[in-house]
Each structure stands twice: as C-alpha cells, then as structure tokens.
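Folding Query — how this chain folds
Tokens — whole-number codes for backbone shape
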Amino acid sequence: MDQNFSIVSMVLGASIVVQLVLALLLSVSLASWTVIFRKYFAIKSARIKSEDFEQEFWSGTGLNDLYQSALSSGRHGSPLQRIFASGMREYLKLRERHVLDGSTLVDGARRAMRAAFQREMDALEANLSFLASVGSVSPYVGLFGTVWGIMHAFVGLSNLQQVTLATVAPGIAEALVATAIGLFAAIPAVIAYNFFARDIDRLANRYESFTEEFSNILQRQSAPAPSAAQSATAASAGRAGPATGFGGGR
C-alpha cells in the first residue's frame, strides 16, 4: 500500500489536537522571526549611530554644539547621544540654579545619564524574553503534540486484528511532525537570543564607559581653572576630547 509521507499530507492527517499544536508553533515561529529581524536592525542602527556620535564627540566639537545637535535629533539620534543629552541637560539646569559645588553638578549629571542608560537598555532588551521563552518552551509544546499524536495512533491501532509496520508508521510520522516544528521554532530563537544578548552587553559596556568619561570631563570643567602649564601637560597626555564651555541650554 502506497503511503503519502509529505509534510502537508501528514499535517492534514493528524488529529485536531496535533493540528492545533502545529498551528500554535507556526504562529510563534512567525512572531519569533519578526522579532529577530526587528531586533537585528535596531541593534545594528544603535551600534552605527553610537560609533558616529563617539567619533564626533572626540573630534573636538564643542559640548554646546553636541548638545544642540542631540536636542534636534530627539528620538532619531543614537542611544549614546540621548544619554549625553540627559547628562548635559541636568548639568546645565544645576548651573542655572547657581549650584557651584563640582561634586553636586557631576553627581546630578551622572544620575541623569544612568536613568537614560537604563531606558536605552530597556528598549534594546525589549522582546528578548520572548525569544528566550520560544527557545525553551517550543520543544516541549512540540513534544506534547508528538505524545498526543502517538496516543491517538495507538488508540486507532487497537481496533485492528493485525498490526504491521505499514499500519503503525503513518501515525508515528504524523506525531513526530510536531516535534520537528517545535525544534524549527526553538533553534533560531535560541541562536538569535544569544547573538543579541552578546551585542547588547557590548553596547552596555560602551555606554557605561562613555558615561564615566563624560563625567570626568564635567568634573574637570567644574574644577577651578588650571594654570597654563597644567593645561599643556593635560593636553599632551591623551586624546583631546570635546571642546568645553557652556553657553546655556534648556
């Protein structure tokens, strides 16, 4: 007896419970791939824009110019640009309130940057938990469909007087499709989750390093003006950094 073992025929021949499991797994897989593509382009955009902003920041552009550029960019700017703008905004507000203590100025700016940093991390990590759930749960959902399909197949075989491999194989094959679809949904989700988690950790380290470097710049800006000889020594010690000087802000 010829048996049709194509995927479509096995799915159509499966029990209603197995078909529901397959529909659920395919829906989850489609949603997972949507999240994967959106997350890939979001992280890539954040990395490229942050690199561009860092290059501009260390090129010697004035802090006021960088701040005005960040304000005009708004949500279209890089995450690093928004972190910088948050710190700069708080720093300027404290100065407008005549806060003169350098530690208070820098601590306020650092707290604002930490809050902005957390917001950016929350945005980058959005839907990562969904990928983790798909990767860990889908195989079990597929296994449930397989077990149910095998039970259904054996119940059907109990009515036969003689059972051969040809009568057993179709039911088992239909049930195993659920496991295959479960793995099909889980494997890309697990790979993507690990890939994105590594990239987000790198971006987080970059943002934290920038926060500390910018805090040091504000600390120097808040300190009493050094002598000409000290300025020359500091300039020759490392990269120049942005030009300081504050003309005001919101």
